[in-house]
Amino acid sequence: MDVGVLQERKFEAEYDRVILDMLAPWECVEIASQALVPGGVFLCYVATTTQLSRVAEAIKESGNFTEPESSETIVRGWHHEGLAVRPQHRMIGHTGFLTFARRMAPGVPVLQRRRRPSKGSYDLSD
């Protein structure tokens, strides 16, 4: 696929991967869903936690993907001279977030992650 305006394209489940690196990727989650074959991978790069939250919620709300998973990318240079190998003293601690999910087949319900109740929660019948 060419780089361009995603919202202006029409898709029919023809791609194995969709990778978004843009300012507002949550606006393109539905379009990415249309472009992906079942089992296809949606990957998104964002720079802030606000963007991360919005894209993760858009993925969940679409109902077409598995539970999104996110990780932070960190860049740390390494010094290497002969057998002296160590990380550089200065590290750029944060460069962005990657979020990914798999496209579910049509008609297949999204699996919900089981979560334990929080320590402070209780049954209302008590």
UniProtKB/TrEMBL annotation:
One of its GO terms (cellular component) is tRNA (m1A) methyltransferase complex. One of its GO terms (molecular function) is tRNA (adenine(58)-N1)-methyltransferase activity. Gene3D superfamilies: Vaccinia Virus protein VP39 (3.40.50.150). GO terms for biological process: tRNA methylation. This is Unannotated protein.
